[in-house]
Design goal:
Blueprint: H1 11-18, H2 22-30, E1 47-54, E2 65-66, E3 69-71, E4 83-87, E5 94-95, E6 102-110, H3 113-125, E7 128-130, H4 136-144, H5 146-149, H6 157-185, E8 199-205, E9 208-217, E10 220-223, E11 229-235, E12 241-245, E13 248-256, E14 265-270, E15 273-279, H7 290-295, E16 296-298, E17 303-308, E18 315-316, E19 323-327, E20 330-334, E21 340-345, E22 352-353, E23 358-362, H8 365-372
Antiparallel strand pairs: 1-6, 2-5, 3-7, 4-6, 8-9, 8-15, 9-10, 10-11, 11-12, 12-13, 13-14, 14-15, 16-23, 17-19, 17-22, 18-21, 19-20, 21-23
Helix pairs in contact: 3-4, 4-6
Length: 373
């Protein structure tokens, strides 16, 4: 058990169902004033749920970086079930690795639990946050899970059902990527000059590359294939884009968020699903990115190096810990995906590293084979 002599992060839930301001009460008590009400005078009304919006991916790994775009959900959409959003997020802001990963809190108060869940899912859907990974989509999967809606989510909920939630989220990402990625990457406005010649695109999502052929058509872009697909594009007043295919319109927002190993990397959001697109269309076709990936181990996120286990000349097995990085009070082991011999160690204990920073270099596969001969 623990006692914290401060307000908990979840205090807005109590404030929503009681109509009281606990921060005001805390200040009054600190001034020596008595509590304004007794326990039996406090009335609870409706149902409130709060979620923490964090700079974490679906595996709870914290991230840092620059916010390329942020837009809060419109307050007018939550008149029946009030939405409270506590945050200091802004476009262009920097999320540093030195503090907790929480970016803000969304709290919805409604007459029933079901209404509160629906309104909170709607609020998360309309929250636009691009530039770095967040748990926005994962929160939505949790809220929409049948067990959660029935009130059956216990402490073990994520341990028991987290993999299934992540799999559902991944399917939605792949579908959004298939439907909207060409419209995100292909220059908006080229449809004004229809061209019979196709342009090759090689777009990657989570390491899976999709070679495509597209061409500009009046009002949009056509993805060649059997059958061909036409995506109509319409710029929206707030800078987003509407993509329409087969009569179905989707709101799409995207921002260029380059990384050290992916200068043409986009973060996109469509219908509440966000995913990352790496445009490798201008990379060499043969072995694009493979040789570099095979000879380097990069930091997956911001953090402090607390242990360097690898040494020059060591033969590391796939999955064997090479470097341990501390981030947000947790230690994460970073290891090669395949057997490799260490050629260079580029970091030291106590050093702060950023996403994409090279930690180790390995002996190139062909060089290692020649040495063995």
């Amino acid at each position: 058990m623990e006692m914290n002599t401060r307000l908990q992060v979840e205090h807005p839930v109590t404030e929503a169902i009681t109509g009281l301001d606990l921060v005001e009460w805390q200040i009054r008590v600190a001034r020596g004033e008595p509590l304004p009400l007794t326990q039996d005078q406090i009335k609870l009304t409706g149902h409130a749920i709060e979620v923490r919006l964090c700079a974490e991916d679906e595996n709870y790994v914290p991230h840092a970086g620059r916010i390329r775009h942020f837009a809060a959900p419109p307050a007018a959409a939550f008149e029946r079930a009030p939405l409270r959003l506590d945050h200091t997020i802004e476009t262009g802001g920097e999320v540093t690795p030195y503090y907790d990963a929480m970016l803000g809190k969304l709290i919805v108060h409604a007459p029933t639990r079901a209404e509160a869940i629906d309104q909170l899912v709607g609020a998360l859907t309309q929250t636009e946050l691009l530039g770095l990974p967040s748990n926005r989509g994962f929160l939505m999967e949790c809220l929409q899970d049948a067990r959660f809606r029935r009130g059956e989510a216990l402490i073990s909920f994520l341990a028991e059902h987290g993999d299934a939630l992540r799999e559902r989220l991944l399917k939605k990402e792949r579908l959004a990527h298939e439907r909207c990625a060409p419209a995100v990457v292909y220059p908006l406005g080229t449809g004004d000059l229809p061209c019979a010649f196709a342009a090759p695109l090689r777009l990657s999502h989570r390491g899976e590359t999709s070679p495509l052929a597209v061409r500009a058509v009046a009002g949009g872009v056509q993805v060649l294939g059997e059958p061909a697909r036409t995506i109509l594009l319409q710029p929206l007043a707030d800078g987003a884009m509407q993509c329409t295919e087969d009569g179905v319109a989707r709101r799409v927002r995207a921002a260029l968020a380059p990384a050290a190993d992916a200068p043409r990397r986009w973060h996109a959001q469509a219908d509440g699903v966000d995913w990352w697109i790496v445009d490798g269309s201008f990379d060499p076709v043969a072995g694009a990115g493979k040789s570099q990936a095979a000879t380097e181990l990069r930091a997956p996120f911001n953090g402090k190096v607390v242990r360097v286990a690898a040494v020059v000349g060591q033969a590391l097995a796939a999955g064997e810990t090479a470097v341990v990085i501390e981030s947000m009070k947790l230690e994460h082991s970073v290891a090669p995906r395949a057997d490799a011999a260490v050629a260079e160690v580029l970091v030291a204990e106590g050093q702060q590293v950023t996403p994409g920073q090279v930690l180790l270099r390995f002996v190139a596969p062909q060089t290692a084979e020649e040495g063995a001969k």
